[in-house]
Structure formats: C-alpha cells, structure tokens
Amino acid sequence: MKPFLLLATRAEDVPADEEYALFLRFTGLSEGELVRRRLEAEPLGAIDLDDYSGIFVGGGPFNASDPPEKKSAVQRRVEAEISGLLDEVIARDFPFFGACYGIGTVGAHQGAVIDGTYREPISVVEVHRTDAGAADPLLADMPDTFAAFVGHKEAVSALPASATLLVRGDTCPVQMFRVGQNVYATQFHPECDVEGISTRIRAYADHGYFAAGELDLTLAAVRRLPVVHTGGILRRFVVRYAR
C-alpha cells in the first residue's frame, strides 16, 4: 500500500505529537503508512501525488480569514504551499481530507466566504447529515445526528458552487463538505477524543479560544456528550482510498 500523507501545522510538540497519534489510532494506519510533515517547521517542497494513497490536513492555530498583515511569515508560506498543492489535488480529484484548519484551506482555495460569523467555543455539539451526506460513503454508517468536537474562531459562512454540503450544524451551518467526489473537509475534529482535545485546550489556553479563567469550564464542555462516531469517518476514508 502507498502511504497516506499528514500535513501538520502545530508548533507545540505535545499537541502535535498527540494529533499524529490520534490520526494513527482512528485511521488504523501504522507510522510507516502515515507519513507526517510538520509544515510549521520546514517547507513542504515538491510532492508527487502518485507516491501517496491520500492526504490529510490536521488542525492548528492558523486562521484563513486573518488579514494578511496579521499573518506570520510561516503562516503565509504554509498557506501558499497548501494552496499550490490543492491546485493539483482539485484538478485530479485526488483523495484529500482536511479537518478544522483543513476546511479553511479547501474553502479558501475554492472561494468560500470564511469569517467569524459562525465561530464556536471549544465544546461538543450535535451535527446533522444532509441528504447528500447520508448518501456519501464516508458517512453511510453514521446516524443522522451525531456528536462532534468543535472549537474554532472562523468558519465557512457561504459555500462555493463547487462544494456539496454533507453535514450541517445548528450554530455553524457548514460542518462538512465535499468538492468533486474525493476531496473532503470538516469543521469538527474527527481525529479527537476527550484526552486529545483536553491536551489542546491546555496548550492553546492563551490563544483566544476561551476567556481567562474558563479553563475548567472548557474542559468540562468537551465531556458533556459522548463522541463515538466521528473517528470512523477517518477509517472509512483510508479503507476507501488505500491503494
């Protein structure tokens, strides 16, 4: 089997390594089958899509909707590299799955409106399959309503014509979409469990996701509902596209 590629952007080693471990766990891949590249640490360089079965993009602290003058040189480089890669991914309809920050990369590439209108505090929310989502192979075995981990300062507020809405939310309308047949993006975190998202809560306590003094409330918020279905989306992606 050709490996899958995980493009990561977390600068902090503990949440970065835990993210990788969670992707390994929920995809069912081994370290040799899921190659990680930490884009915050080094340039992406040339990528030959034919070397891989598919690509994952994880979450991170970057926001696509930040004004250019507020973006660091690293963020601008990473965005340019991922956008260039997406040119080929979209053209070939190559298997791609972006989670949280990943939805911003695909959305921005396709011309979605991304802003702070539907930001959500770190928590667990219930989200709902659309009719298109119920027919999609990655969601076929999911219940119509399921719990998911969220926490984001920006979101897609208007989808481009190229995107098909698969999962909607009550407080954030665009929770998952597909471009073509094989390019997916989620606003929620399918790669998380309670322990993993708790690590991120502590690591990003001063990044503006919640107010000072709300650490304990936020840690409690991710335990208010059991999240049991979302990890299966990643495994079905791997089963579908491994080659």
TrEMBL record:
<dbReference type="Pfam" id="PF00117">
    <property type="entry name" value="GATase"/>
</dbReference>
<feature type="domain" description="Glutamine amidotransferase">
    <location>
        <begin position="49"/>
        <end position="192"/>
    </location>
</feature>
<dbReference type="InterPro" id="IPR029062">
    <property type="entry name" value="Class_I_gatase-like"/>
</dbReference>
<keyword id="KW-0808">Transferase</keyword>
<dbReference type="InterPro" id="IPR044992">
    <property type="entry name" value="ChyE-like"/>
</dbReference>
<dbReference type="GO" id="GO:0005829">
    <property type="term" value="C:cytosol"/>
</dbReference>
<dbReference type="GO" id="GO:0016740">
    <property type="term" value="F:transferase activity"/>
</dbReference>
<protein>
    <submittedName>
        <fullName>Glutamine amidotransferase</fullName>
    </submittedName>
</protein>
<dbReference type="InterPro" id="IPR017926">
    <property type="entry name" value="GATASE"/>
</dbReference>
<keyword id="KW-0315">Glutamine amidotransferase</keyword>
